[in-house]
Write a structure and sequence with these properties.
The complex is a heterodimer of chains A (about 375) and B (about 850).
Chain A (H helix, E strand, L loop, with lengths): L1 H29 L34 E12 L4 E12 L11 E15 L4 E12 L2 E3 L5 E4 L2 E5 L6 E7 L3 E9 L4 E3 L5 E2 L7 E18 L2 E16 L7 E11 L4 E9 L9 E5 L5 E4 L4 E4 L4 E2 L6 E2 L4 E5 L6 E8 L5 E2 L6 E9 L5 E10 L9
Antiparallel strand pairs in A: 1-2, 1-13, 2-3, 3-4, 5-6, 6-7, 7-8, 8-9, 9-12, 10-12, 11-12, 12-13, 14-15, 14-25, 15-16, 16-17, 18-21, 19-20, 21-22, 22-24, 23-24, 24-25
Chain B lengths: L1 H22 L1 H30 L6 H4 L4 E5 L4 E2 L3 H7 L6 E12 L2 H6 L6 E6 L16 H9 L3 E5 H7 L6 E6 L2 E11 L2 E2 L2 E2 L4 E5 H8 L3 E2 L1 E5 L6 H16 L3 E4 L1 H11 L1 H32 L1 H9 L4 H45 L12 H28 L2 H5 L14 H14 L5 E4 L2 E3 L1 H33 L3 H11 L3 H38 L4 E5 L11 E2 H8 L4 E14 L2 E8 L11 E4 L13 E6 H7 L6 E6 L2 E12 L7 E5 H8 L3 E2 L1 E6 L5 H11 L3 E5 H15 L1 H27 L2 H9 L4 H43 L9 H28 L7
Parallel strand pairs in B: 4-10, 5-7, 19-24, 21-23
Antiparallel strand pairs in B: 1-12, 1-13, 2-11, 3-4, 3-6, 3-12, 5-10, 6-7, 8-9, 14-15, 16-26, 16-27, 17-25, 18-19, 18-26, 20-23, 21-24, 22-23
Helix pairs in contact in B: 2-11, 2-13, 2-14, 2-25, 11-14, 11-19, 11-25, 13-14, 13-24, 16-17, 17-18, 17-19, 17-27, 18-27, 19-24, 19-25, 19-27, 25-28, 27-28
Classes of the chains: A mainly beta (about 375), B alpha+beta (about 850).
Chain lengths: ~375, ~850
């Protein structure tokens, strides 16, 4: 029985590999290679690029867009549950090769979002900052060190341990130590993650899908010692989204059995999912399996309407697919820990929040972070 | 039955009070206007004072909310390279840091500069607009792409909507300005809405992106870093932590303070000035109160038949008393309401005048619009009502206590108020007032001296003088009677003054107070102008004077770059250039100006007006860092004297300054200590200056060089000696503009009060006038009688008022002014002004009194007897 199952897994993996190889070769023949630079001089991620580590964890000001995106689920020793999101965006206005030491650099901008969900306190805290590169916001190009005001994300030279200091207004302060529990993932069969039909619509997409997290979280007068698990994406691109997209739904699931799953729906203007939407399985060893839109379903059974913005968000999606090993259908029902996890920010309002993953029987099988973008009007820059 | 009672009160009011208001509408209206002017003046000064203090808030507050802490350098700004160090010192503690440059711009286009609604400059803030981008929106809701385009434009400038309106500028307009004495051209790239998140923007505000302004100024430092702790339940805890962290990290290096400290500092610096204004604004009110008393007293007399009838009908004295007080309340309400209107109207002027004074005398402030609040409204009505009740006390008591039979007795004149008969009280008040002058000033906080005893003296002299002047009526009446001979009008007028009624006394009191206060202020202003002119003549010896265009005298005004002065100094025609630069420093809790001038030029090109000649350096103690020459104000505020040593903190450590001389200086009243310029430059490391004096080689034509320099340096203002004198005097006149306005209001109230008093006084003499007519006097003779009577009151008021003015003027000059501002002035009495005033008053009194007599007889009816 076990042998049969293993054979099935092997067959499946071979099929996936072959499908990937065929797709890659078809793509290679069907479309020209991406330009090396965008019209405004930024680099375009090239298929097959060999990335140099740990340098790649640092900033790449030659590329237009870059972000370090962390989400996590934290548990206090006293039983309280929290979720957090920390996003450091870098947006280049003028390409440059190295980190500038100018105190005010108009060529690079930093947009940073912080959010904390206090499940037992039924509260959601968030804050946005926006600065040009310089004395108060920067990302180093030689090692992972990103700062924005008092918010920072730093790593030791070999990126085996990361430190993050954040706060939200004068309500929340958080200090976390994060240790990757799995190897670094690089998404995309050719080393770049495709997000649209244009040859240049691709990114270098790096992920630590499970990081042991420890630290302290202070909310108001209450300080908690917390432990939990985090997910970190680092994406580098110059022109990855298609102008026909109106937004996206993105989810990062950490299952209790050691698997992770990432899925995203890139939504076209007519509401249909872009063929570049994907679902990726990550097994306990860090191996990935890619599914296209024909291999998973993303249902949106209900919507939550925001009182603040009147926007309606599908905050309880149900994702159905097949398990890459067992080939059995699986169902992941996202149950938000709090409905109102909307980041109401001028020009870029979206919903991003923590939730439980329930199987078809209603059993909790893991945790997830869900991001819903483009439901509260046009996102600035999209 | 309560309902019946209220109806009866209303009926009383209608029949008894409102009827008289209707019949004497002109008099009632004039009285209301005077009262309104009194309350309004007080209110407008209060609003102007508040606006002046409000103006000390940071210009940045309206753009990004009030800061929680301010980090400043002791020297010349915080180098940009240190910003990261400040951030790192706070580690993970949440705090938003906003580096700020604040400089003054002055439009070089004469048309535009003439349109500035105040003589000050435009305040230009350099702020990181990317950091504030989510907070700043332009009035036309510009797209974000415009925003980035704007940042790439090194000449961009955002201006407030009110500034755009007043200067006639719009998006795309070019503006030539002077910054640090250099000409720069900016382009208006956006208009900021008048309100930012419901906070009104200062009227003279312009904003530029910080890096662009740093480049434009060629600077590598910011003026301050403002710290804003985000809102939240832990804000106060975090604020305390941040304060402690910064102090620990930068103690002795950077100055950490709060905006409240800044505002308090500004408010405290101007306490004496604002208190003086408030006291002066009370004059008009005081005169108004005398007039209420007089009016109510007149109505007692006019309505005596009605009072007697009411008393005969069983209405008790208490009800009569209340009825009279209720009439006073009515006056008070009207005064309060009118006062709010007048106060609001006057505030447009007073706010600007007070702000101008504060700017030229103390420090740069933002122009803040006057606003009226609930407290002002309550205060206005309270002053009106309480003042009216106080004023109505004597007439009301008189009405209530006089028996009905006495009211009905024909020909009986209303007796004078007993209080006005008590000359002993009057003289006691005058003597006690004089003795109080020996007391020192009240010192509520370091550096602030309030001449409380001086104010008490003024009050006692005003009150005592009022009573004493009333005694003068009898003397003048007696003299007129004696001098009358066969002149019936003179005899009659004399006998009426010799037996004055309470209305004579009140009319005189109001007039006396108004003239006294107005002439005291004239005395002070005249002395001030004289002293300052003399000081300027002594001080301004240079051939040419250089400053950044738009410099108005405040040490926070625009400065000019030292390199420009270096260039001027190297010209062949120039013998020497002295430069002036001040820094605000603290000594034992008192903030003062530590300034530098070239000591090597003293006694050669430059002069100081010495109050205490410099001590020989051989008298100096063994160790000190510099010799300092203090002005009088400095020694008074800090309690120091000749030969003392003070320690001041500088970026180069603590420096000891030995006070080696005391000189006169009227340019600032927060204290000035001069040290040799190279020392100051070494301590603080600056290379920009407020003013410079240029001394030319013998035979160099001043006008030619002036023209040459003006062409070469369009961003500088280059004046010759006489132009500077004119400008300096203009600034000083502006400084005193509020005081002058109050003086004018005082005079206006005095004259209006005189008209009202005489009208009221003579109208109430109808019975006597009728009798004179019946006895065969013609209209001219009767009018001459009233003219003598009115003139007698006016002359007594005039003479005693001028005497009081002289005495109060001396108190203002030698006590109040010296204690408040620390300025010794030479007393110069304005004889010509006084004579002109006296002649005008006597002529006015003659005209009004004569006309009243004639007009009354036109309406004469025999049955009035």
């Amino acid at each position: 029985m076990e042998t049969g199952a293993n054979m099935s897994i092997l067959r499946k993996q071979i099929l996936h590999f072959l499908a990937g190889a065929v797709l890659l070769s078809l793509t290679a023949f069907a479309e020209p290679a991406p330009h090396e630079f965008t019209y405004d001089g930024f680099r375009v991620p090239q298929p097959g690029t060999v990335l140099e580590f740990p340098r790649t964890h640092a900033s790449h000001p030659g590329y237009k867009i870059e972000w370090w995106y962390l989400t996590g689920h934290l548990y206090a020793s006293t039983g309280e549950r929290f979720g957090y999101q920390a996003t450091f965006f870098r947006n280049g206005l003028k390409p440059q090769q190295e980190y500038s030491e100018q105190p005010f650099n108009n060529g690079q901008l930093y947009l940073t979002h912080m959010a904390v969900t206090d499940v037992s306190g039924k509260s959601f805290y968030f804050e946005q900052r926006f600065s040009r590169e310089g004395w108060d916001a920067y990302a180093r190009t030689d090692r992972l060190e990103v700062r924005h005001g008092n918010w920072s994300l730093t790593a030791d030279p070999d990126v085996t341990s990361l430190e993050m200091h954040t706060s939200i207004n004068s309500e929340v302060q958080m200090q976390l130590n994060l240790k990757p529990e799995k190897k670094l993932l690089r998404f995309g069969e050719d080393g770049t993650s495709r997000k649209g039909p244009a040859p240049e619509a691709r990114s270098f997409y790096l992920t630590f899908s499970r990081m042991l997290t420890e630290g302290s979280l202070t909310i108001g007068d209450q300080q908690y010692q917390v432990t939990g698990s985090s997910w970190m994406d680092h994406e580098i691109a110059s022109n990855q989204l298609d102008p026909n997209y109106t937004g996206w739904d993105w989810i990062a699931i950490q299952l209790k059995d050691g698997w992770e799953l990432k899925a995203y729906l890139l939504r076209e203007k007519d509401g249909s999912p872009s063929p570049y939407s994907a679902l990726i399985w990550i097994d306990p060893e860090g191996n990935t399996s890619y599914y296209g839109t024909d291999s998973f379903e993303w249902d949106k059974p209900s919507y939550w309407k925001s009182v603040a913005t009147d926007a309606s968000y599908p905050i309880s999606p149900s994702i159905r697919t097949t398990h890459p090993v067992t080939n059995q259908p699986v169902e992941f029902n996202f149950d938000p820990v709090l409905d109102d996890q909307e980041l109401n920010l001028p020009g870029s309002t979206y919903w991003e929040g923590a939730g439980r993953i329930l199987d078809a029987s209603g059993n909790e099988t893991g945790s997830a972070y869900l991001e819903l973008v483009g439901y509260a009007g046009r996102i600035r820059g999209l | 039955m309560p309902g019946r009672h209220s109806i009866s009160v209303l009926t009383f009011w209608r029949k008894f009070t409102l009827r008289h208001f209707r019949e004497d509408w002109f008099q009632t209206l004039l009285l209301m206007l005077i009262l309104g002017l009194g309350v309004g003046t007080f209110l407008s000064i209060r609003m102007a004072n508040r606006a002046a203090v409000e103006g000390f808030r940071l210009f940045t507050d309206s753009l990004k909310g009030a800061s929680d802490l301010i980090i400043e350098s002791q020297g010349d700004g915080i180098p940009v390279s240190r910003l990261a160090e400040i951030r790192d010192s706070l580690e993970g503690t949440p705090a938003n840091l906003y580096p700020v440059i604040e400089v003054a711009l002055y439009p070089l286009d004469n048309d535009i500069s003439a349109r500035l609604n105040n003589p000050s400059t435009i305040r230009l803030l350099g702020l990181d607009l990317v950091q504030l981008q989510s907070l700043i929106t332009t009035s036309d809701g510009d797209e974000i792409s415009d925003f980035w385009d704007m940042l790439d434009n090194p000449r961009h400038l955002l201006i407030s909507e009110s500034l755009a309106t007043s200067l006639g500028l719009s998006k795309g307009s070019q503006l030539d300005v002077s910054i640090t004495g250099k000409k720069r051209t900016f382009e208006v790239t956006g208009i900021l809405p008048e309100f930012q998140d419901r906070t009104p923007l200062p009227e003279n505000l312009a904003v530029m992106d910080l890096p662009a302004l740093l480049n434009a100024l060629g600077r590598g430092s910011v003026d301050r870093v403002e710290v804003l702790v985000p809102e939240g339940s832990r804000k106060s805890e975090l604020l305390a932590k941040i304060n402690d962290t910064l102090i620990k990290a930068f103690d002795g290096d950077l100055l950490i303070g709060s905006p409240t400290d800044k505002r308090m500092e500004g408010a405290s610096m101007t306490t004496a000035f604002r208190l003086n204004l408030t006291v002066l604004s009370l004059i008009a009110l005081l005169v108004g109160l005398f007039l209420i008393a007089q009016t109510l007293d007149a109505t007692v007399s006019r309505r005596r038949k009605e009072i007697a009838t009411l008393r005969s009908l069983g209405i008790g004295p208490r009800e009569i008393y209340r009825l009279w007080l209720s009439e006073a309340v009515l006056y008070g309400l009207a005064a309060g309401a009118l006062g709010i209107l007048v106060g609001y109207g006057l505030s447009a002027f007073t706010v600007e005048a007070v702000t101008t004074t504060v700017r030229s005398l103390y420090k740069e402030t933002s122009q803040t619009a006057a606003s009226i609040n609930l407290t002002d409204i309550i205060l206005s009505f309270s002053i009106g009502i309480i003042g009216s009740l106080v004023a109505a006390y004597l007439p009301a008591r008189d009405a209530a206590s006089t028996p009905p039979a006495q009211f009905l007795r024909l020909g009986k004149r209303i007796p004078p108020f007993p209080l006005f008969e008590r000359t002993r009280i009057a003289f006691t008040m005058l003597v006690v007032g004089a003795l109080l002058l020996l007391l020192p000033p009240w010192n509520p906080e370091p550096g602030t001296n309030i001449p409380a005893a001086g104010y008490a003296t003024a009050f006692l002299w005003l009150t005592g003088g009022t009573l004493a002047a009333a005694f003068g009526l009898k003397i003048v009446g007696w003299l007129m009677h004696r001098a009358g001979g066969n002149n019936a009008p003179l005899l009659l007028a004399g006998s009426r003054l010799a037996q004055p009624t309470s209305r004579h006394q009140l009319a005189l009191a109001g007039f006396f107070v108004a003239i006294g206060m107005a002439s005291a202020m004239t005395f002070l202003i005249s002395s001030f102008e004289h002293t300052v002119t003399q000081w300027l003549q002594q001080r301004l010896k240079a051939d040419l004077f250089v400053s950044s265009a738009g410099f108005q005298g405040s040490d926070s005004g625009p400065k000019m770059s030292g390199e420009l002065l270096d260039q001027i100094e190297q010209l062949d025609e120039v013998r020497s250039v002295d430069r002036f630069r001040s820094k605000e420093v603290e000594y034992s809790g008192v903030l003062f100006s530590l300034a530098g001038i070239r000591f090597d030029l003293l006694g050669k090109d430059q002069e100081l007006l010495w109050l205490n000649e410099p001590l020989p350096v051989t008298n100096a103690p063994s160790s000190f860092d510099a010799v300092g020459y203090a002005n009088e104000n400095f020694t008074r505020r800090t309690g120091t004297g000749l030969g003392d040593i003070i320690d001041v903190s500088t970026p180069q450590g603590t420096k000891s300054i030995w006070i080696g001389g005391i000189h006169a200086d009227y340019a600032r009243d927060n204290g000035l200590l001069l040290v040799d310029l190279p020392k100051l430059e070494g301590w603080f490391g600056f290379n920009d200056y407020e003013t410079a004096s240029v001394f030319l080689e013998e035979g160099v034509p001043i006008d030619t060089l002036q023209i040459k320099l003006r062409e070469a340096y369009p961003g500088l203002t280059i004046r010759n000696n006489s132009e500077l004198m004119e400008t300096a005097l203009f600034i000083f006149k502006q400084t005193f503009s509020v005081t002058k306005a109050l003086q004018m209001i005082g005079l206006l109230v005095a004259l209006a009060g005189l008209i009202l008093s005489l009208l009221s006084l003579l109208r109430e003499s109808g019975r006597e006038l009728s009798l004179q007519k019946t006895l065969g006097m013609n209209r001219h003779e009767i009018a001459t009688t009233t003219a003598f009577e009115g003139c007698g009151v006016a002359v007594i008021g005039m003479v005693s008022g001028l005497f009081l003015g002289g005495m109060l003027g001396l108190v203002l000059i030698y006590v109040i002014n010296r204690q408040s501002f620390g300025w010794t002035l030479q007393a110069v009495y304005p004889f010509l002004d006084s004579v002109l005033l006296a002649v005008a008053v006597v002529l006015l009194a003659l005209t009004i009194s004569y006309a009243t007599g004639r007009l009354y007889l036109r309406k004469w009816r025999p049955e009035l007897i």
